[in-house]
Amino acid sequence: NNPGLTIDDIAKSVRLSPGYCARLFRKETGESLSAYIQELRLDKAKTLLLNTQKSVGEICISVGIPNSTYFSTIFKKRFQLSPSQYRRSQPID
Q: What is the pTM of this model?
C-alpha cells in the first residue's frame, strides 16, 4: 500500500470527486474512507515495528503520518499500547 495515499488520490484514480468518492465508500462499507486509510497505515506500522529496526519517527513518516505525536496517540488509542510498548510486547522469533 502507498503510505502517502489520500482520498484525493483514490478519487482521481476512479475519476470521482473526493467528496463523492468518500460518500460512496461510506455508503458501500459503512466506514469512512479516511478511517479506512488510517487503519491501513496503522497496520503497516505494526508490521514495520516488528520487522524492522526503524525508529518510531521513521515508521510514522513511512506510513504517511508525519507527526510522531499524533501517530503515537492514534496508535495507542487503537491498540492500547504505544508503538514502543507494542514493539517490546511481541515475542522475537
A: 0.85
